[in-house]
C-alpha cells in the first residue's frame, strides 16, 4: 500500500480527519491531503516535538499556518486545539502522522483513527 493510500483511505476516508500528512522522521513529506501544506519549518518542529514535548506545551503546535494550543505532548502523541478544531500527531518508528480535524468532528473520534493507524504502522515496523 502506498503512503498516499494511508492518507486518502485510512485517515480522510474515515470521515474523522479533515486534513492529513505523513512526515518522515528524517525529513520530507511522504504523503499529504490536497491543500494541506506544511512548511519545512513546521515539519521540522513537529518531528522534533516528540524529543522535547515541553516545547509544544510552552509554544503550541503550528501546522499549515494555524497555531494550536497544546493539550497533550509526550514521546508518542501530541494533541492540540484551536477553537472547535484540533490536531493529532502520532509518532511511529519511521514517521509522524499529522492530522487536523474540523468541527463538527470531535477530538475523541479523530484521536481514535490516528492512534489506531499509528498502532498498525508500529506493528508493521514503520
TrEMBL record:
Binds to actin and affects the structure of the cytoskeleton. At high concentrations, profilin prevents the polymerization of actin, whereas it enhances it at low concentrations. Occurs in many kinds of cells as a complex with monomeric actin in a 1:1 ratio. Coiled coil: none annotated. Signal peptide: none annotated. It is found in: Cytoplasm, Cytoskeleton. This is Profilin. Belongs to the profilin family. Keywords: Actin-binding, Cytoplasm, Cytoskeleton. GO terms for cellular component: cell cortex; cytoskeleton. GO terms for molecular function: actin monomer binding.
Amino acid at each position: 500500500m502506498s503512503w498516499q493510500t494511508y492518507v486518502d483511505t485510512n485517515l480522510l476516508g474515515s470521515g474523522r480527519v479533515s486534513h492529513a500528512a505523513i512526515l518522515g522522521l528524517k525529513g520530507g513529506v511522504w504523503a499529504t491531503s490536497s491543500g494541506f501544506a506544511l512548511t519545512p519549518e513546521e515539519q521540522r518542529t513537529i518531528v522534533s516535538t516528540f524529543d522535547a514535548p515541553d516545547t509544544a506545551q510552552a509554544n503550541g503546535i503550528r501546522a499549515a499556518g494555524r497555531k494550536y494550543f497544546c493539550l497533550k505532548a509526550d514521546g508518542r502523541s501530541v494533541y492540540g486545539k484551536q477553537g472547535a478544531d484540533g490536531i493529532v500527531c502520532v509518532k511511529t518508528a519511521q514517521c509522524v502522522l499529522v492530522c487536523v480535524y474540523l468541527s463538527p468532528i470531535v477530538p475523541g473520534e479523530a484521536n481514535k483513527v490516528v492512534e489506531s493507524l499509528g498502532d498498525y504502522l508500529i506493528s508493521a515496523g514503520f
